[in-house]
Amino acid sequence: MNYTPLKNLYYQNPEKWESMYNRRFDAPHTRHFPINIRQYNHPHAFPAFLCYTEEMTLLLQSVYRKQLVLLPILHNAPSVMLSQFTRACLLDEIQSTNEIEGVRSTKSEIRAVLDRTRRASDSLHLQSVVDKYRKILSAEQIDFSDCASLSLFYRHFVLDEVVSENEFSRPDGQLFRKEPVDIQSAVQKTIHRGLWPESEIISAMNSALHILNDEEIPCLIRIAVFHYLFGYIHPFYDGNGRTGRFIASYYLSREFNRIIAVKLSSLINKNKSPYYEIFQNTNNEYNRGDLTPFVLWFMKIVERSFSETTSTLQRKIQQLQNYSVRLDSLPLGDPLTRELYFILLQASLFEGEGATMKDLTDTTEKTYITVKTRLREMPADHLGIINDRKPFRYKLNVRKVFHG
Questions:
Q1: Against a cut of 0.85, is the pTM above it?
Q2: Which residues on neighbouring strands pair with residue 356, listed in sequence order?
Q3: Looking at the 3D structure of the chain, how many domains does it have?
């Protein structure tokens, strides 16, 4: 049974709305949080709460079942192809999380930072963001245990970029901001004001971080609750969205998989209007602090991430297998040359990124000289070389090899 938001119920039947609110708020399966939710420019605040529903249980079940389907696909995927896919996801994620906030960063710029081919002074605003997302891929631990650790993370993650856009966005309080901040719509209408003063920010954020790390709450649910609360509290002048989405991605990577984690912002970017709308609806006075609709929406985004990732990998693996059969029919010479063709084929499947020489030598377990010699022996029109930045990248010219 679908969960009807209280805001919708108010407009359908105000009398039923009041009784439904009381039933939900007082239900034995309801979880209460020590943070009050108030719509901008409205007098009343309501304690935040969450109803554990059948729909939520089914979504949790669906996500973990999809995880079980995805894991063997990832385990059996060829290493270079998986590396290419992960890199493509990372590029999309970093570009998307910036784009949601109206920050322009091209994939070329992000690639250059990933490959460390830009001077530090040219890429300072991107370098810190890329470095933090690398930590997700490498499974490094990041501390989000309290307000001090969160403030420190923000300063290393996005502060340089925020300050490069507006020097006055630098946090000026003990840990966060000490002045009010308003969130405006596309037509410059104030739709939310973050918590204030800083003492209230610290108190609410301590509660939110406790929820995020409370292992008595199912992981996906507490990630969703925290994601909303972080946006509601809005502890910094700018960069809140990027920071909140990174924290969600980091915790998703710990519970599920790093690829699922680095697809969150790209999916949100594709659903940007519903994303902003669910925040506003959750803030709405007639919603009375019910976080359940937001949590359900967030869970559906994660579920969709699993579905899309699985579908894309299955399609690419099938494509790779089809081409591999055709490689077997070509006069490629010895097994090493055939292996190189197969690796270069994998490197051609995702956005044409290409494989580095290190990818080729590590996968074949051959020396640089041996691999380089074999590449030189390949027909020139079979090999694509991306040499506009280092490290050079190599891929197969699929159209020429298979279609002449």
A1: yes
A2: 393
A3: 2
Measured CA to CA, the distance from residue 166 to residue 164 in angstroms comes to 6
8 Å CB contact between 382 and 394: no
Residue 372 and residue 350: Cα distance in Å, rounded?
A: 23
In this prediction, residue 121 carries a pLDDT of: 46
Backbone angles phi, psi at 182, to 5 degrees: -105, 145
DSSP state of 168: G
Rounded Cα distance, 236 and 205, in Å: 12
Please name which of 188, 327, 306 lies closest in space to residue 257, comparing C-alpha atoms.
Answer: 306
- One domain for residues 293 and 340: no
Query: What SS3 state is found at 352?
Result: coil
Average pLDDT, the chain: 92
Q: Rounded distance, CA 116 to CA 132, Å?
A: 14
272-283 vs 219-233: helix axis angle to the nearest 10? 80
289 secondary structure, DSSP code: T
Distance of alpha carbon 52 from alpha carbon 141, whole angstroms: 30
User: Could you tell me the CA-to-CA distances from 241 to 99, 104, 238 in Å, in that order?
Assistant: 11, 15, 8
Interior angle at CA 75, CA 73 and CA 78, nearest 5:
85
- Considering the domain architecture, whether residues 301 and 337 belong to the same structural domain is answered as no
Q: CATH number, domain at 359?
A: 1.10.10
